[in-house]
Specification:
Layout (H helix, E strand, L loop, with lengths): L2 E4 L1 H14 L4 H16 L10 H9 L10 E4 L4 E5 L5 H19 L1 E9 L6 H8 L4 E6 L20 E5 L7 E5 L6 H10 L8 E2 L14 E2 L5 H18 L20 E8 L7 H16 L15 H13 L1 E4 H17 L2
Parallel strand pairs: 3-4
Antiparallel strand pairs: 1-11, 2-3, 4-10, 5-6, 5-10, 6-7, 8-9
């Protein structure tokens, strides 16, 4: 599939124009565009502007609220419940993260449960958001049923991602963002878009057989077998069950039922690095850990040992200057629609 190189500013503008045409508040549209382009800059195309068409479809059919009214209910000094009013999850989680950071700065630790949300994009964005405020973060989100549990032949949990962010003093933060499946569903979708094959441990067909053709994938496999299965269960308990939301196969599907609100749950936990020790010592120790890992002798086939999130950060630096590769079909979709919007507004 041919690609075009697009500068990040243009790509954000195209997404904003598409979302505002679907009645999303411009301020919210810019947040969503920022999260999507963040993913593309880091090479995580499965969570990038590829998703725009899906969001627009759900917005147009009533499955997301383009003009939500957020509410926050305090549950004690360090805890709050954030109601996203079925708005775009990217904005919901960004706003909730701001509140969680404030709680941890005031009380040492903060936890914010989020209800009535939707797909929020790459969790690394929000871990970076917290790290920029010198705050440790842990973010979890449930997704609809797509992953076969260990020992099973049909799906129960979703990909149920989890992310951690650890700020440093001089170095860039350590950002771990991972699905509890071998890959996120978006990577399967990206392979379909690109017309490429996939590793045989990514997904299975209707009969539970592992396949390399992304078009045959019906369900995903957990990362590390029983370990990924256990993590997926943990995420759904900490998000869906803890907040009183749906869980497992009871969650409204992302692709289908476009007129229904998904009412997803997320949970954010933030910690002030100075909770137990001097904050500057914590930040310096993270620097030391990163430097020491860089000094570890690399294995054959590797040029260096990196920390989680570092390969993506390096790619972001390059693409911020040189532009982002975008599938021609996706670029044409965004360009055509945004041009139509501009013509209709004259």
């Amino acid at each position: 599939m041919p690609e075009v190189i697009v500068q990040k500013g243009e790509l954000k503008d195209l997404v904003v124009q598409k979302l505002t045409a679907a009645d999303v508040i411009e301020e919210h549209a810019r947040v969503v565009a920022d999260v999507l382009v963040h993913a593309d800059l880091r090479g995580i195309h499965s969570h990038g502007v590829l998703r725009t068409e899906h969001y627009v479809k759900r917005l147009n059919e009533g499955g997301m609220n383009p003009m939500p009214a957020f509410t926050i209910e305090q549950k004690g000094m360090s805890a709050a419940l954030f109601n996203g009013d079925n708005g775009m999850g990217h904005v919901v989680v960004k706003e909730a993260m701001d509140h969680a950071i404030e709680l941890s700065k005031e009380n040492g630790i903060g936890i914010v449960g989020i209800v009535n949300s939707s797909h929020c994009g790459a969790l690394s964005y929000f871990a970076e958001q917290a790290a920029a405020e010198e705050t440790i973060s842990m973010i979890m989100t449930q997704t609809d049923s797509a992953v076969v549990p260990f020992g099973g032949s049909e799906p129960y949990f979703g990909t149920n991602p989890i992310a951690y962010g650890f700020p440093a003093k001089e170095q860039k933060p350590i950002i771990l963002d991972m699905a509890t499946s071998n890959v996120a569903l978006g990577k399967i979708l990206h392979a379909r878009e690109q017309g490429t094959s996939i590793p045989d441990n990514w997904g299975v067909d209707d009969n539970g057989k592992q396949v390399t053709d992304p078009n045959l994938v019906k369900h995903l496999l957990p990362v590390g077998g029983p370990k990924g299965y256990g993590l997926a269960l943990t995420v759904d308990v900490m998000t869906g069950i803890l907040t009183g939301s749906a869980f497992g196969p009871n969650i409204t599907t992302m692709y289908g039922d476009y007129g229904k609100n998904r009412r997803l749950a997320h949970v954010i936990i933030t910690i002030d690095p100075g909770l137990f020790i001097d904050k500057e010592q914590f930040l310096s120790n993270i620097d030391q850990m990163i430097n020491e890992l860089h000094e570890v002798k690399p294995a054959e086939g590797f040029s260096a040992v990196m920390v989680p999130g570092e390969p993506e950060q390096l790619k972001e630096e390059v693409r911020s200057n040189e532009g982002i590769p975008v599938s021609q079909s996706i670029y044409d979709y965004l360009k055509l629609d945004s041009t139509s919007v501009l013509k209709n507004s004259n």
